[in-house]
Design goal:
BirA Bifunctional Protein, domain 2; binds biotin; globular; 270 residues; alpha+beta; 6 helices
């Protein structure tokens, strides 16, 4: 029953192809199979709910029917636009942040590398997966999960990071498909400009915790503490350490240093 509404929302975006599933395991899995089967750049998989949704580092991502928005875009290197793998997660986070700014007047920020925050709480997570044949990039899938309705946010004891929903932030319910459209519009505007300096500065300008003291955990080493300066051209996080040295972080989990939040993510189980 959702198809006609989605059809109406997406009608003028000129997407090459899309599929809506009321329920799937993971939209990323469906998209990876479709990529393998020859899906075009810009093809889209949307799900009403997911039973095997996943996040970064093997975590579970829960998509609640009606309340969660889950979709995955397919990107191909042969589409006439550059496809720098290190910028794809940023493409997702930037598209979501701009959609929330433009569509709803929300001040959202990017929690590097793959989350979107509103008022310091996670509202969206991005999972990019690459498909290789030998050492040639076949393509990528860019999965986006957004807590639209309040019911999309799991109980707090299951959260790794405080979470919120768009409904909570706005104080009113909104349509998942309207949010989808807004994100796709922002996505399409950046897709051909991933390699541009404008993309880098739009990304950097929306980083959460800029000029603040943060802690980075990589699960292996003791937490690293520093003041967040910005991004390197490669998209690494530039920190100014306590001893005055500069340091570039390639991977890890970032938290504000003086976090008053409980140890606990959004739509995301531990
Ligand atoms: C994270 O927070 O670690 C990333 C969460 C990514 C969730 C989205 S929902 C659509 C797509 N399908 C998945 O299984 N995961 C991504």
């Amino acid at each position: 029953m959702e198809d006609p509404i989605i059809q109406q929302m997406l009608a003028d975006l000129n997407l090459p192809a899309w599929h809506y599933y009321e329920e799937v395991g993971s939209t990323n899995d469906v998209a990876l199979a479709w990529l393998e089967g020859g899906a075009p750049d810009g093809a889209l998989v949307i799900a009403g709910s997911q039973t095997q949704g996943r996040g970064r580092l093997g975590r579970t991502w829960v998509t609640v029917p009606e309340a969660g928005l889950a979709f995955t875009l397919i990107l191909r290197p042969d589409a006439g636009s550059p496809l720098p793998p290190e910028r794809l997660t940023a493409l997702g986070t930037l598209a979501v942040v701009q959609a929330l700014e433009r569509g709803y007047g929300l001040n959202a920020q990017i929690k590097w590398p793959n989350d979107v925050l509103i008022t310091g709480r996670k509202v969206c997570g991005i999972l990019v997966e690459l498909a290789w044949a030998d050492d040639r990039l076949q393509g990528a899938v860019l999965g986006i999960g957004i807590n639209v309705g309040r019911a999309a946010v799991p109980p707090s004891h299951l959260l790794r990071y405080p979470a919120t929903s768009l409904e909570e932030a706005l104080g009113r319910p909104i349509s998942r498909w309207e949010v989808l459209r807004q994100v796709l519009e922002a996505y399409l505007a950046w897709r051909a400009h991933l390699a541009s300096p404008e993309f880098m500065s739009a990304w950097e300008n929306r980083l959460a915790f800029r000029n603040e003291w943060v802690q980075i955990e990589d699960g292996l080493n003791p937490p690293l503490i520093g003041r967040l300066v910005g991004l390197s051209p490669a998209g690494h996080l530039h920190l100014h350490l306590e001893d005055g040295r500069d340091h570039w972080v390639t991977a890890g989990e970032i938290r504000p240093l003086e976090s008053s939040f409980a140890e606990s993510s959004g739509g995301e189980d531990a």
